[in-house]
Amino acid sequence: HPLNFKKPSKIIEGFFFAQMRTMIKQLVLRLLFLVPIYTLLRVGFFFYHFDDYSSFSFLQIISALIYGLRFDLAAIFWTCSPLILLSLIPIQSKILNKLKSYLYILTTTLTILMSIDDYELIQFMGKRLSRDLFVISDDIWIQLPQLALYYWYFPLITILLAVGVWKLDKIYFRDIKNTLNLPKHIVASIFILVCTVVAVRGGIQKKPLSVQSAFTQGEHELGILVLNTPYHFLRTFKNEPLRPLHYMSEAEMKTFLHPSSQNSYQGISKANIVILILESFSQEYLEKGYMPFLNSLKSKSLYFPYHLANGRRSIEALPAILNSLPSLLSDPISKSNFQSNNFFGLGHALKEAGYTNYFFHGGHRGTMSFDAYVLSNGFDKYFALEDYPESKDFDGSWGVFDGPYLKYTLKILDEMPKPFMAGVFTLSSHQPYTLPKEWQGKFPKGNLEIHESIGYVDEMLKQYFEEAGPKKWFKNTIFIITADHTQKLEDSKFNNTIGRFRVPLFIYAPGHQWNNIDTTQVSQHADIPKTVLDFVEVSEERLPRTGRSLLGKGPGYGIYRENGGHGFIIGDLHYKLLGEEASVASYNWETGVEQGEKPDEAKLLKANLQYFINGLINNSLQSEKIVTEGAPR
């Protein structure tokens, strides 16, 4: 044969013990052959979309191609898992050998077909192929015949490559001598199974590889290049695809959405931004006196007492706080079919304006995929437990105690290029609520086990601001202080649907005076990005309309998902939608009592849901520009 596989096969045999002759060799050669196939498909994608990558450096492109090999191995072992299992059966059979060959060729052909068709389908979806294709666009199915004719070269290339794979398999792989040495076969089989598990999860790190991991270079186009179509399709396949909502026409929907910010507030150009996200700090704990330091900030800052988190889990906080994406799906955005969508958020906007963006979390790298999320959304660096220098400050469960970790972040902030944005996510008020020995017994224990740890974190915040006060950058910094979600609650005022989303929000700028800003309006996490951008005088037009600036005109609102339904509160009107049943009731913020529920069209809620869900499906939230007159009705 013109190609000689004798030497490579000897190397593979040596790897599995000297001079081994088993059926495993055939499997390994087939898997290895797919690596250059996947690389060829990625290079083809790059040249097909060359204009999209012309602004990137040679090093960025090469890095994306190399990093993509990790996803290729995951896809190869994943798609070939049936072949792998068949190859581990210690039986000599011509029928079995033919079955393995046909399965290999079929799998490879489908892989090539999906990948090549995705060269053009990505123009419709804005992301790699997923199950969403089958529900998002009737237009695609209607146009399928003419699309197939127009792009006739896609199936032709697929057929040519498939025939080439079939020929190579027939000549070089199918006729490999398969003498069976059972002990060696068993050992090699175990090795192959271990390799399969490691490859599919993307390595031996704590958290498996995810679609979001492909975007850690920070640019969406590079993330798309890193991914391959089979991996993206399989990784998102388990998630049920969303159906578009058609409650009303697009024109009517836009009349209910908030416009871009229209305010006359004089911002603080190039001010630094620090976003402190406190683990499990409910508004109830603030009002009950477990946060004396934060209580003292009320008179010095913008304090929003009617503020809502947009989710009930930590993993749902970052999309809302950084990208104005409330948690309205059954899955968190970062784990959904839409994790590879092209979102534009606070990190992107500030980075374009010359900011350096860092994020800090004292937990293990990979916790809730925070690192992948922030690095793919405009942040330059992510600091985790593994970067912290003192092992003695480990709490034994989650990460570094908040006291020493907050001081550690200050040292990094001193060295950061200015202006900067820093996100800091605390963790000591998380179950099991462990405190350092020197602080145990120093805070009110209250009636809930979380109360003592709330007091500890509050005291650490006090020390954090005392140490930050003398620093040169302090007075030119805006601090956003909120919580990711609520925790256990006692009073009926908070232990209700709305109350379970109520967390504090403070906006503290020590070097600036506030004027004529309404802090009694309802607010939500999704409002934070636009509010911050208004403060530092950076355009926020590309952010989704799911949030608004708290400096703008018009009433505020909060939107949420709970128990399979959705809710929306504006002022004291609480709209609810469960299936097709919509209603509205009056909500008393001071007592938590809801009364007077009656059927209602709930158009405000439906319009915002339609905008958000359809924007996710069409991958258009980052580019929607809603022009409306006045505030929503």
Break the fold down into its secondary structure elements and pairings.
Elements: H1 6-15, H2 24-48, H3 58-79, H4 81-87, H5 94-125, H6 133-136, H7 138-142, H8 144-150, H9 153-173, H10 182-200, H11 220-226, H12 229-237, H13 250-255, E1 272-278, H14 283-287, H15 292-297, E2 302-303, E3 307-308, H16 317-323, H17 346-352, E4 356-361, H18 370-375, E5 381-383, H19 402-415, E6 420-425, H20 451-468, E7 477-483, E8 505-508, E9 523-524, H21 528-535, E10 557-562, E11 565-570, E12 573-578, E13 581-587, E14 594-599, H22 603-617
Parallel strand pairs: 1-6, 1-7, 3-9, 4-5, 4-6
Antiparallel strand pairs: 2-8, 7-8, 10-11, 11-12, 12-13, 13-14
Helix pairs in contact: 2-3, 2-5, 3-10, 3-11, 4-5, 5-9, 19-20
Describe the structure.
This protein is of the alpha/beta class. It contains 22 helices and 14 strands. It has helices spanning 6-15, 24-48, 58-79, 81-87, 94-125, 133-136, 138-142, 144-150, 153-173, 182-200, 220-226, 229-237, 250-255, 283-287, 292-297, 317-323, 346-352, 370-375, 402-415, 451-468, 528-535, 603-617; strands spanning 272-278, 302-303, 307-308, 356-361, 381-383, 420-425, 477-483, 505-508, 523-524, 557-562, 565-570, 573-578, 581-587, 594-599. The strands form three sheets. The protein has a seven-stranded mixed β-sheet with strand order 2-8-7-1-6-4-5, with helices on both faces. The protein has a five-stranded antiparallel β-sheet with strand order 10-11-12-13-14, with helices on one face. Strand 12 (573-578) and strand 13 (581-587) form a beta hairpin. The longest helix has 32 residues, at 94-125. The protein starts with 5 loop residues before the first helix and ends in a 16-residue tail after the last helix.
